[in-house]
Amino acid sequence: MSNFRLATYSLLASLASLACQPGSGDDELGTDASTDASSSADASSDATSDATSDATSDATETDTNPSTTNTTNTTSSETETDTSTTGPGNESCAGYFPPDAIWCQDVTDAATTADSATVIAWLDEAGWGNGGNFQIDFSFEVLEADAATPRMAFEATGDFYSPDCDWVPMPVPEGGVLEGENGYECTTDGDCHLIVVERDEQRLYEMWRANIVDGTFYGGCLAVWDMTMIYPDEGRGEGCTSADAAGFPIAPLLFDADEVASGSIDHAIRFILPNAHIRHFIYTRPATHSTFPTSGPDEAPPYGVHLRLRADYPLENLPNEGARTVARALQTYGMFLADGGQIALTARSDRFTTAKWDGLLAPQDLVDLTPADFEVIDHGPGIDYETVSCERTPLGTPP
Predict the structure, then answer these.
(1) Tens digits of per-residue pLDDT, 149-168?
(2) Which of 261, 296, 314, 364 sees the fewest Cβ atoms within 10 Å?
(3) Mean of the pLDDT values across residues 299-317?
(4) What secondary structure does DSSP assign to 205-250, as a single string?
(5) What is the DSSP letter of 269?
(6) Of all helices (H) and strands (E), which one includes residue 39?
């Protein structure tokens, strides 16, 4: 490795360390969030929606942050993608991608990794975040847009990385909100994801660290996904991040109140772990990225790990049908490690859904699930993040 690259890693690692100081890091903020969310578990889930909107996963996930990447190479090549498409009226994966997308593959009978028992044993000892409680965060929003929705250009902040991030105007629906906020202003200094699905053009826009103040749009990393495509193993680009640290899209991995009320979640689910519980610098398919703050040993799960709830888990022990619906999805489709933080499982807010979380599912209805109840699905060997560098042609011309 060149002296220049070593110096670059050293500088970025120092910055990452500073980013994880108390008051701004995922573990510190996640503790506060878990306290608030835990107190709401004894109240109704209506209060849950409000409480978890305030105790956002922004506070629980600061690894979303591509800020600690080695992706400064602006010489890029276009990512090759499959051209599978979905047409109007066709089935789709979670409402976003073609039905064969990896997020909707049935893994009931999929093989496990050779080190599945080792990884699970290590994680069972380390625990989930949030004091080991397998809790649900209900703070994410997904906004709908169409061709008539106004577009806004954004001013790139220090949370925009090239060539990982796309540089195009973003649809901003009237009356929309950021993750964990009541509008488009990021008042909590959290992740403040802005997620917008534009179905006329079949694009999914996901931005990390959005903030619109007095008509000025300040933007972090924007990842624009083509919803007509099944992406290859390299996703949007090997070594490239997205609005989530692992390089995944977020929206197709969020479950919502309408799905739970229907009794069926037909896709995998997003989950997160503390940085210290994620294998350092290693990711596995379908992830394309890792981060500097990860510090787990070789036995820890890597970014992108795909966990499946064991088929013999006694669903009847769960407190309600909502919890059993989520658990069945975890048995059929599993969950992917997407980001670093404290509140393990991620769902949508009920702000824009027909069904509401009140009386349906509360934050702690799945706390009985432990790492020992899961298995690791095999997606091939781990990839060392230090050996790759993001190379892609972003949409638009980055600043």
Answers:
(1) 999 999 999 999 999 999 99
(2) 314
(3) 98
(4) EEESS-EEETTEEEE--EEEEETT----TTTTSTT---SSTTS--S
(5) E
(6) helix 26-40
Residue type for position 57: S
Report yes or no: 208 and 64 within 8 Å, Cβ to Cβ. yes
Instruction: State the residue for tokens 């890693």.
Output: 9
Q: How many CA atoms lie within 13 A of 169 on its CB side?
A: 10
Closest CA to 291 of 272, 307, 309: 272
Task: Quote the pTM value.
Answer: 0.82
In angstroms, the Cα distances linking 215 to 65, 153, 211, 237 are 25, 11, 10, 32
CA distances from 36 to 61, 135, 370 (A): 15, 12, 21
Measured CA to CA, the distance from residue 138 to residue 37 in angstroms comes to 10
Residue where the block lists tokens 């917008």: 196
Summarize pLDDT for 278-304 with one digit per residue, the tens: 999 999 999 999 999 999 999 999 999
CA distance 173 to 209: 17
Calculate ∠ Cα 60-275-272, nearest 5°.
50
**What one-character-per-residue DSSP string does 128-166 give?**
-SGGG---EEEEE--EEE-TTSPEE--EE-TT--TTTS-
Angle at 191 (CA atoms; ends 7, 175), nearest 5 degrees: 145
Nearest residue to 139 (alpha-carbon basis) of 177, 176, 184, 180: 180
- The domain locations on the chain are 34-140+233-387
Find tokens 């990385």 and name the residue: 161
Is the Cβ–Cβ distance between 81 and 226 less than 8 Å? yes
CA distance 309 to 112: 12
For 213, the token pair is: 């103040």
